[in-house]
Amino acid sequence: MTPNEELLMAIFKYGKIVTRFDNDDLPPIMAFPTEKYLDVLKAYKDYQPMSAEEQFLSEAFNRDSKELVDLVMHFPPYKHLLAQKALFAVLNGWKIVDEAKVSNHYRRMALEYTTIEVDYGLTENSIKEGTIVLESSDNRRLAVKFYFVEHMEEGKPRSDIYLICEKENKQWLDELVDKINKWIDKNNYLRGKKIKPDLTFLDNKMKYNWDDLIVSDEVKEEIQRNIKDYFELGEIYRKNNLPFKRGMICYGQPGTGKTLLGKVLASQIESTFIWVTPSDVETAKSVEYVFEMARDLSPTILFFEDLDLYASIREGNNKSDVLGELLAQMDGFMDNNHLFIIATTNDLKVIEPALKDRPSRFDSVIAFKPMDENLRTRMIRRLLRGYITKEEPDTLSSEAAKLLKNMTGAELNEFFISVIKTAIDEKNFDADKKVILSLDIFKKALNKIGVNKNKIMIGFGS
Fold it and tell me: From its phi and psi, is residue 207 left (phi > 0), alpha (psi between -120 and 50) or beta?
């Protein structure tokens, strides 16, 4: 309602038509006696019409909106659907008797919904914006307004739920809030899942195991020891008043297995796993949000990929606010119990020393080195599984490894695809169209992609 319309309502209260308003914004039909002029102005000043939302609530409860009370519950987005589930679980038996999304123009519209992923390949609809009115079997009523902010506000998204009832039921409303929070803590469907900060689930079509990670025995044993200590010694740590947290930096050139480690852990470890890329932590608030989620869903493995892109040495770092928040969140004063934090980087020396060199933040720094001939042999032998070979698999693996010097694990994976294609091009397959691999096929594949002493492959690597 415009101010002019409000003035007209005030005039209707006092007036009779005696003259015409000289105002293009007003219908030229209203006037009022001069002696009522001050009364009209006072009425206009004091006139406070109900908002569309107040009108909706007044009708829902059949009483003045001023006789109602509300409580607001703030949630991070990953609890938006969960909070709605909690509400309907706690108010089991209550029925929805009215619902609407009320606009500022006094129009009732349908509720707005959003789709949220709840498990791998499964989604559910959730109320994004609007108000529902619930009624119990004994005729008590509760209005619930949902407001979901998809975009980041100062870097941190949010979900708000307003609970509204009569003032005399305020104590019951307080108790309801407590029950909702307890239900959420107990029934968080994201706990134990493998997700990204934007609530999408990691692809679980490909399962990885520890044998897929081709690194030295020393590196694998150190990683597994840290993981084993974290998951198996937690009770002992707690009983001896030791902080139950771990931090590990994995560094090395691209393609040496750092990202693959994350995939192995996501497949093999029974805990919440959150995969964080640089685009997920572009502001200090987004860093805070990620750690809040990790603590809430603990025990959690928090996997930071490409740490050097947002946690480099402070001088010249254009993301100093992100680095500062990361340092604060990993500080010994923060409650990071039940968090295992792993970070990967291609360049360890550019990481801020206060982050990489402080034991309370990262306990272990593990080097992922390029594969030697023994590791290349092991990897090729693993890639050959399920394929027909002209030579004995062990012999072929050993001889091929000598040809492929300086290749990283990622490059070997890509190169092996070229080997298969080369066998097909050479029509080197059996009666069932299954390719037959040989050292000669490996050599032809190398010749096709081009090889020199300085760069083992042209077109591969990461």
Answer: beta
Domain at 210-367, CATH from 3.30.565.10, 3.30.70.1520, 1.10.3300.10, 3.40.50.300 = 3.40.50.300
The CA distance from 89 to 280, in Å, is 32
* pLDDT reported for residue 337: 76
DSSP H helices, 143-268, are 170-186, 217-232, 234-239, 258-268
Mean pLDDT by groups of 10 residues along the chain of 462 residues: 53 45 46 55 60 87 91 91 95 94 79 90 91 94 88 66 95 96 93 93 89 92 86 78 79 93 93 95 90 93 93 70 88 74 93 81 89 94 93 94 89 93 92 92 88 42 38
Give, to the nearest 10 degrees, the angle between helix 393-403 and helix 373-383.
130
- CATH 1.10.8.60 correct for 373-449: yes
Specify the pLDDT at position 266. Answer: 94
SS3 88: helix
Residue 146: both structure tokens together: 């949902």
Region of 186 (left: φ > 0; alpha: ψ -120 to 50; beta: rest) is alpha
Q: What pLDDT, on the 0 to 100 scale, is given for residue 26?
A: 44
Fold observed for domain 52-188: TATA-Binding Protein (3.30.310)
Domain ranges of the chain: 3-46, 52-188, 210-367, 373-449
CA dihedral in degrees (452, 453, 457, 462; nearest 10)?
A: -150
Bond before 299 cis per omega within 30 degrees:
yes
* CA 327 to the chain's CA centroid: 20
CA atoms in the 13 A half-sphere facing the CB of 258: 28
